[in-house]
Structures are given as C-alpha cells and as structure tokens.
Design brief:
By secondary structure, the protein is α+β, with helices and mostly antiparallel strands. It folds into two domains: about 130 residues, ATP-grasp fold, A domain (Dna Ligase, domain 1), CATH 3.30.1490; about 80 residues, no CATH class. Helix content is about 30%, strand content about 25%. The radius of gyration is 17 Å and the shape is globular. The N terminus is likely disordered.
C-alpha cells in the first residue's frame, strides 16, 4: 500500500469544478484543502470512505455565485439524497477538516443552501486566516445516519490506553449504544491502521446508516481534545 504522507503533487492546470473523491487532483491539498485530500488518499488505499465530490472553489477560480449556480448543484444532484457538506481548507498543520464547520442532511436543495450559508459564515468567523488559502466544499453521501463515532488512535508515546471511541446519535433521547462491542473493536483497529498509513496519530469520524454500514467522513491528524 502507498503511504498517505507521500502522495506526489499534481499540476493544478485546468482544475475541474467538480472532482470525485479519490479522483485526479483530489489528493492535492493545494487544490482541495487538507480535509478532502486526506479523505481521498484514504479512499485510494482501500479505507471505507463515504463517496462524494469536491468543489475546489479557489483552485477552479470560482466565486460563491458560480459555486451555487452550477458546481455544487451538480455534485448534490449526483448523490440525490441526504448528504454531508463540509469546508476543506488548507492549513499549516495539514490537519484535515479540523475546526471547519460541517452540515448534515441537505436532502433538498433549499435545505442544503440554508446549511451552506450558515456553514460558510461560521467558517469565515472561526477560521479567518484560512479564507485566503485554497479551500473547497466537500459533498458526501450519508443516507439515514443512525449513529456517528469519533475514533482517536491516541498518541503512541503519550499516556492512555491506545485507541478510543466516542459515539453519538442524532436522537438525544435514545440511550442505546448503537455501536456495540464488536464495532468498537473494529473501529479501534481501523484507527490503528489509518495511523500506520498516515505516519502519525489520527482521528476518524465514522457514520453508520440504519443497516449498520459505516463510512468515514473525516480523517484528520490526532487531537487529544474531541472536536464537536
């Protein structure tokens, strides 16, 4: 398997307005931002990443009106269902999506736009330095999310018990543990494998649908404090 930390740079000439995750240009953080690049690299080496598309706003030379008028709608229409949208920005640490905002559902175009406007306003407020760097919008297929999990591989030389799993449900009144012991064990193994491939400790965000199928929606450098 190829090492995630050593993908060659690509020529960013003629960057398309919509790029499939894992496709040409999608592994270059200078085109798609760190979060989308890490997801694409993970997808290329066989990790269960949720399918989706990247709209490289900066690299394709688009303004927000052009994004809304064509590229984003094209990406959304290719999925046609509940989606996750997130801002993927380039940062010096190369930490994935990090503190960038995200939004779930978007099953209707008007609902997606409402979430997008709030997400972009939050991004400009919370991450002002990254707005001048390459950034993109990531759209992923996440139907009927039943449960989400944040898996932290843990720092290999620090205190702790190795990989840990934090879980949550869209229904705050549902006390059941939808993951169970078997899935938690698999998630810890997945985090260890991801850390080995990335060359550093990582955090993974995984969502499960009602059938129990899990897909990765974020792959980022390890942070000892879970991010909401």
């Amino acid at each position: 398997m190829r090492h995630l930390a050593h993908e060659p740079a690509r020529d960013d000439a003629a960057v398309p307005e919509v790029i499939p995750l894992g496709g040409p240009h999608s592994v270059n953080p200078q085109i798609v931002g760190d979060g989308a690049a890490l997801l694409s690299r993970a997808l290329r080496v066989g990790f269960p990443v949720a399918r989706g598309f990247v709209v490289p706003v900066t690299a394709a030379g688009m303004d927000v009106a052009e994004v809304l008028g064509g590229a984003l709608r094209e990406a959304w229409a290719a999925i046609r269902g509940s989606v996750r949208i997130a801002v993927s920005a380039t940062c010096p640490a190369g930490g994935g999506f990090g503190a960038s905002p995200q939004f779930y559902d978007g099953s209707t175009w008007s609902g997606l736009l409402d979430g997008l406007y709030d997400m972009l306003a939050h991004h400009r407020l919370e991450n002002p330095a990254t707005t001048r760097l390459p950034w993109s919008i990531v759209v992923q297929d996440v139907p009927d999310v039943r449960c989400s999990a944040l898996v932290m591989s843990g720092h290999p030389t620090g205190w702790g018990q190795g990989a840990s799993v934090w879980s949550g449900s869209p229904d705050p009144d549902d006390p059941r543990d939808w993951l169970g012991w078997t899935r938690r064990r698999r998630l810890r193994r997945l985090a260890r494998e991801a850390a080995a491939l990335a060359g550093h400790p990582v955090d993974l965000e995984v969502v499960y649908d009602v059938r129990g199928s899990g897909r990765i929606v974020d792959f980022r450098r390890y942070n000892p404090v879970p991010q909401a």
